[in-house]
Amino acid sequence: MQRVLVIGPCGAGKSTLAGALGARLKLPVFHMDQLNWNPGWIESSKDEITSKLHDIVATKRWLIDGTYGGTLGPRLDRADTVIYLDFPISLCVRRLLKRIWTYRGRSRPDMTEGCPERFDIAFLFYLIRWNSGPRIRTEARLKGHENKIIRLRNPDELQRWMDSLPAVA
After folding, report:
1. Counting beta carbons within 10 angstroms of the beta carbon of residue 82, is it exposed (0 to 12), middle (13 to 18) or buried (19 or more)?
2. What is the pTM of this model?
3. Strand, coil or helix: what is 139?
4. What are phi and psi of 58, to 5 degrees?
5. pLDDT tens, position by position, 100-148
6. What is the pLDDT of residue 39?
7. What crossing angle do the helices spanning 121-128 and 89-103 adopt, rounded to 10°?
8. Going edge to edge, which strands form the sheet with 81-85?
9. How far is CA 13 from the centre of its chain?
10. Using alpha carbons only, what angle is made at residue 159 by residues 155 and 161, rounded to the nearest 5 degrees?
11. What residues are paired with 81 via a beta bridge?
12. Which of 4, 6, 145, 157 has its CA at 20 to 30 Å from residue 13's CA atom?
């Protein structure tokens, strides 16, 4: 695993996994939320994010967390491994609400400074509708990359998988 994507619904734990896995594999970690958001919740332009990602994926070693379907193609093409946290949406909703409460009014470690955590009803509904929209689009984008995907369906499965990884010197 030299070029790794961590994808899945909001609240699945992608950023948490990315930090742990990046440390374990000694890979530089990039968070799509940090690449996309500027202070004050100002979104990067498509050209800006495409340029940032182009520079990252051109390197030999990286771990990128975040689904961001519109930018998934170039990342998938270069990735050698895709960790898909395909967790139940009910779990993700609980985790998202916990994250909002825990970081309310301040930026998360995996988010751009100046983007304080906040409750966003539209974002919550996006997550609730994951299986009927974003999931379908994500699955379509994964076609042709099935041999790279490690699909984990719950936190216990994730923990067993992490425990099975060999130590990197």
Report:
1. buried
2. 0.95
3. helix
4. -75, -15
5. 999 999 999 999 999 999 999 999 999 999 999 999 999 999 999 999 9
6. 97
7. 160
8. 29-31, 62-65, 3-7, 81-85, 149-152
9. 8
10. 115
11. 4
12. 145
CA 108 to CA 38: how far, in whole Å?
13
Alpha-carbon distance values, 51 to 38, 47, 160, 167 (Å)? 15, 6, 36, 33
Structural tokens at position 34: 């940090």
| Mean of all residue pLDDT scores within the chain | 96
* Amino acid (1-letter code) at residue 151: R
| Residues whose CB falls within 8 Å of the CB of residue 45, separated by 6 or more in sequence, listed in order | none
CA–CA dist 128, 87 (Å, integer): 13
Task: Map tokens 């930090």 to a residue.
Answer: 19
Burial 60-76 (b: 16+ CB within 10 A, else e): eebbbbbbbeebbeebb
Q: Which residue has tokens 């967390």?
A: 65
Q: Which long-range contacts (CB under 8 A, 24 or more apart) does 24-27 make?
A: 24/162, 24/165, 24/167, 24/168, 25/1, 25/63, 25/168, 26/168, 27/1, 27/2, 27/61, 27/62, 27/63
